[in-house]
């Protein structure tokens, strides 16, 4: 039989554990290396004809790449300087992925917009090929 202590959990059981990268009273901050890894996966995924991943990459990681930096407090020691150098390198790579993802998503949007315009205005002039690339052939005059 279980003891009453295990049957009920107190408020301390439901709180998130704090770590050294969590702000007191604030949300838990993600590991910068994992953030960079996910940003890189989304960036590379966009090259496989998935431009929506580039858009998500820009929207999701923009604050991480271009937001205000956490400034170290007090006199930096060698350990703090090393952490700061690593943080700057990770932030620089994240910025690079976000900028290139934004450019890629914009290029895809322009290409798809031009294709949509050309298709809608000239499909009937393309004859059989225009019908072949159509999923639904509209009725009426071409």
Describe the fold and architecture.
Helix 3 (32-45) runs antiparallel to helix 4 and helix 4 (51-66) packs antiparallel against helix 5. This protein has helices spanning 4-7, 11-14, 32-45, 51-66, 78-122, 128-132. The radius of gyration is 25 Å and the shape is rod-shaped. With 142 residues, it is an all-alpha fold. The chain is 62% helix and 0% strand. Mean pLDDT is 77; it is low at 6-19 and 71-75. The protein has a domain at 30-125. The longest helix is centred in the C-terminal third of the chain and has 45 residues, at 78-122.
| Poorly predicted parts | 6-19, 71-75
**Succession of helices and strands:** HHHHHH
Q: In total, how many beta strands?
A: 0
Largest sheet: none
What's the helix count?
6
What class, by secondary structure content?
mainly alpha
Describe what is shown at a glance:
By secondary structure, the protein is mainly alpha-helical. It has helices at residues 4-7, 11-14, 32-45, 51-66, 78-122, 128-132.
Topology:
Elements: H1 4-7, H2 11-14, H3 32-45, H4 51-66, H5 78-122, H6 128-132
Characteristic key phrases:
142 residues, 6 helices, 0% strand
């Amino acid at each position: 039989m279980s003891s009453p202590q295990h049957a009920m959990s107190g408020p301390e059981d439901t709180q998130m554990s704090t770590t050294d990268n969590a702000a007191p009273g604030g949300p838990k901050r993600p590991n910068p290396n994992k953030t960079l890894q996910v940003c890189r996966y989304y960036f590379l995924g966009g090259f496989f004809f998935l431009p929506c991943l580039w858009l998500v990459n820009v929207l999701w990681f923009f604050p991480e790449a271009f937001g205000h930096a956490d400034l170290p407090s007090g006199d930096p020691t060698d350990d703090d300087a090393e952490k700061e150098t690593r943080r700057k390198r990770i932030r620089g790579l994240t910025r690079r992925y976000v900028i290139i993802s934004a450019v890629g998503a914009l290029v895809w949007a322009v290409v798809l917009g031009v294709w949509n315009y050309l298709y809608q205005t000239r499909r009937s002039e393309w004859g059989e090929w225009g019908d072949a690339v159509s999923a639904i052939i509209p009725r009426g005059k071409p």
